[in-house]
Amino acid sequence: MSKITTELLLERAVPRSTRLRKIETLNLSKLQLKTGDLDPRLFSRLRHLQKLDLSDNLLDKFPNSLTLPDLRVLNCNNNKLEDVTALKQFPLLEELTYENNVYLTLNDDYKVMFLLQNLRLLNGKDITKLANHVRRVNSRKLTSKVTAHWEKFFRDQLPEKHTAEQVKSIKKKFLKSVQTNVVYGPSSLSEFTRWRVKMIAEEFLAYSLGLELNSDTEPEEKMDENEEESTESPREAAEDVAQVGDFSSYISNVTVTSSKRKRNNSKSSPGNKRSKSQASTEEEAEDVSAEPLHFLQCHSKGNSREDFKTQLWSCVFEPVLDSGARKDPIVSSSRTVATCGGESVCLIDCETGTVLKKYKVATEEFFSVAWTTLTMVISDSRTKAHNILAAAGRRGIVKLIHVAADFCYGEIKAHKKPIATVCFSPTQETHLFTASYDKRIALWDIGIPDCDYNFKASQLLVLETASIPLRIALVPTCPEQYLLAGCEDGCFAWNIKLDKGQKSRPFEAIFQFPDDESMTTSHRVDGLAFLNDDVVVSKSSKPGCIYLWSWSRSFDAKGKGCQRTMSAVILAELEWSTTDMSYLTLSTCPAKEYVFCGDEKGSVWMYNLSSYTSAWGSAKGKRSERRISPTQILKWPELRVNGEQPPEILVNNVVADPAFTYLVVLTSVNITAIWKKS
């Protein structure tokens, strides 16, 4: 019979408790406990336990399923522990002591530093800097060595057409060889190095052998088909980017047949009724030559290749650090894009399709990502510009990730309800807007982290909304004064100037849009972006409705008072799908004067509006009498996964880089498609 009972747990709680679920601190020291006494079924009821003292017992290891999701402090001094790897089941652990366990060595210290991403104190010592080195620099070096070892000695040993037995044989040889020959760091850490090398090598093999096994597609149609990355285990608060981020995450066993993408130059009738029968080729339009490069499945829950349910929501291209290039996006633009959906955020190289880094929070569903560039002090008062990624979603928490360092250095508990979208100010690098289901848009100053990643965030402003904000956009000509938001029940504008003194503000204006024969303010706006300094593109839940309208002619900046109703001055309407499905958002490429929007069939509608914008810029510019047809529609290719077509494909988002070299398409079926313009 176990020594641990419900009554004992209640009695040893600090303070004593009447319910197991209420216990936050528990002292089980000096009870002569052995591993078998730790009953997982009983411990699973300690859902809110944060501090556990198991010192002065006879434990030789931990059971693998104690289920203590909130454990922060653990004392295991004076036991007989032989292994520490089971401690990875406590992802929020911040303080750990296991002194006087004679079988544990320095190698075990390094293992827990790698496994426990939140660990700050180990045996009473602050290990923050050393742990960051172990997780980042050490892992990066070992990954490089493992990859080089495969390329030099084993890559050519595997025949192009190979059997399962050959794969099994080379895997065994490679694992043995790499653990013997890859050496890094002092000899006192050789056991830890072998442990990490084996882990990295197994992850690498999952990628490389999966790549070589797929050879059944035709050459001109074949895409890179690497097996999905499986570099990290789910951790509720794993605030570090995946350690092995050099392996791609392609959908395996995929056949792609590219359907002919037809250019749609149909002209609509003078009225607003869409008429495909009146197709005409008289209108001149640029036919964009774009080919699908990669189809990735890198956001799968639990790294499952069978996951075609995870929704992908947001993607943003990384800024180019050279300020000169950033001022002129045509000169140069990044090919690295951040994507989010489900429990993960990924950084993808669009050219190679490589998943460079992956950040994962098992209990989160990420809805939005945004970049900013901070000038940080690195050492000896020297400064350097670094790109910082903000990610947020269902938990209402903003994660701040220093991508170059593979490190999530902090979080902001911004809202009590989910965050729909985030964006940074283009003029104030530390100013971040968060729009939430609590019907508020908050402006934060995230601060600049010091060399130890200490930072201080503060809330500067709260904008009250009448309904849930879905999309937000700062007005390009005055980004420190006005913000637009597309909401569940309309399109609104706020004055966000900080010198006004009023911290909580109602909306200043709500915009009316055409609705059959009248004007209405009540409609869902699930797409919103600026095409240039003045032209706004907004998408309504009304079937087939994308409007282009003038900010300067619609908004009366001289008017007084708030919550005023203003009529949007419509410049044109874009012909789009007749679906009434919501949340298929749009984007723009201002430098190329393009608008993009996906539909309910996996297609991307592209509109080149360069021939219209000069006329719209005129003070006398009038509304186009007919709907503007798409320049081109990129059809979703015939994609087969393991011989079967994926389920119904919705395009949730589609984004081009500033120079319109790549087009990233996010879908409802956990597939990221990357197209490249020829």
General description of the model:
It is found in: Chromosome, Centromere, Kinetochore; Chromosome, Telomere; Cytoplasm, Cytoskeleton, Microtubule organizing center, Centrosome; Nucleus. GO terms for molecular function: chromatin binding. This is Leucine-rich repeat and WD repeat-containing protein 1. The chain is α+β, with helices and mostly antiparallel strands and 678 residues long. It has two domains: 203 residues, Ribonuclease Inhibitor (Leucine-rich repeat, LRR (right-handed beta-alpha superhelix)); 374 residues, Methylamine Dehydrogenase, Chain H. It is built from nine helices and 39 strands. Strands 1-2-3-4-5-6 form a six-stranded mixed beta sheet, with no helix packed on it. Strands 21, 22, 23, 25, 26 and 30 form a six-stranded mixed beta sheet that branches. Strands 17-18-19-20-24 form a five-stranded mixed beta sheet, with no helix packed on it. A hairpin with a 3-residue loop joins strand 14 and strand 15. Helix 3 packs across helix 6 and helix 4 crosses helix 6.
